[in-house]
Each structure stands twice: as structure tokens, then as C-alpha cells.
Fold this protein.
Amino acid sequence: MKNIFKKTEENNDNQNYANQFLTNRLPANSKGKVVYIRPEHHEVLIRLVQLSKENKTTLYGYIDNILAQHLKDHADDIKDYFQEHFKPIL
């Protein structure tokens, strides 16, 4: 398996990553949706989640944090894309 992660400059960056992404923000009984994840991505994700056992991070919590950050970072682009492709009826 190839290394898809670049080494960060400081351990502090690693701690910030863990605090941002490897934290559960969803209740344990939350009802989610089933999605397909490519096996190579699943392997990386599950290994990261297993490393954070002390935080009790779940796979769905980790993926939810990644998606939340992506949507926040690209909100303007997503809105522009939607507006460009949304054609009102009237």
C-alpha cells in the first residue's frame, strides 16, 4: 500500500488533525446511510480509526468530520456549481 499521507511539519499539526477529524460528534445511536467506499480507502480509514481507540472514534464519525470540513472549505464552489447547473422552470 502506498503512503498517501505527507508528513506534517510538527507533532502539533498531528494533534490538530486528530482533534478535528478523529473525534465523534454524532450520538452513538444516530441513524446514518450506507455508502460504498473503495477497499483501498476503507483500509486506510479503518486503520486511522483503530489508532484513535482512546478517543473512541468511529468510522462514521471520522467520515462525517471529513465531509463537514470539505463542505465548509468548498462551500462557495459548491454553491456556484449548483447555481450553474440549476435551471429554474419559470
Q: What stands out?
A: The first helix runs from residue 11 to 21. Residues 47 and 61 are 14 Å apart (CA to CA).
